Fold:
Amino acid sequence: MLRCSLIVMLWLPAACVALGGCVTTDAEGPMAERRAVVRVPFAADRAVTVEGDNGDIAVRRGETGEAVISADIRARTARRGESVRIVTQTSPGGDLSIRVQWPVGWREAGEAASLSIELPGCSGLTVHTGNGSIAVEGLSGRALIDSGNGDVTVRGHEGDAEVSTRNGSVDVADHRGECRVRTSNGPVDLRGVSGRVQVVTANGPIEVSLSDDNAGPVDIRTTNGSVQLEVGPGFRGETRAESFNGRVRVRVSSGHVEIDEQREWAVWRREGIEPRSRVRTTNGRIEIRERAGPTD
Structure:
């Protein structure tokens, strides 16, 4: 049986709900702006890939049984803006890919396309933009999120996630699954994470707060920045903390703590030595604290 992929290349003015256009001015001259909405059939048990170039991307759970793509286009001329295409491709299995195609094959300086995407759900998510922020909310499945330059926000995701940005902050909250974060320059804030945590940054503070039932482990490393780790009653094993230029504090009421006189390292053992966690910074302080469990 012959199988093929469905590719839809949509001209924005003709295949969408046009919301009007306007002209703005930046440092390099006037810019034409256009907004359009594209609707594509999509099942909630399929995966989606979004490829951006220059512009913010937001992906969240919607209330319809299809993918709804809103595109905000900034182009050098109105004609170029009208020629921008949102290319959607559906695989034989129903997975969806979304990308922006600029006229004549390239984007001119100052041009951008920001995407706001609503999905009925998904089984996996891959999002990339070369320059811009990324926000993901209320979805599920394995998530691969990468921005060349911009902040990343993840809210209420169910599934393992890998997040990276070269220059920007990472903010993750209410995450059910493992979470791996890598950034070259920017703060990292993880709250309510239920799975294994790995955070690596060259420059920026790190704050991690695990869910009550998270047993660990965590692997947290920064070259230049402070680290704060808060764990719940389900956390266990051995945690080693080390700072080459900064003090280490361990504020816990259970287990056994060893700490050196200069407070440059500490080892906290709670209910055995497995799993093994580590927290390390070259330049900055480290604080580990234990959150009390809920009371009746």
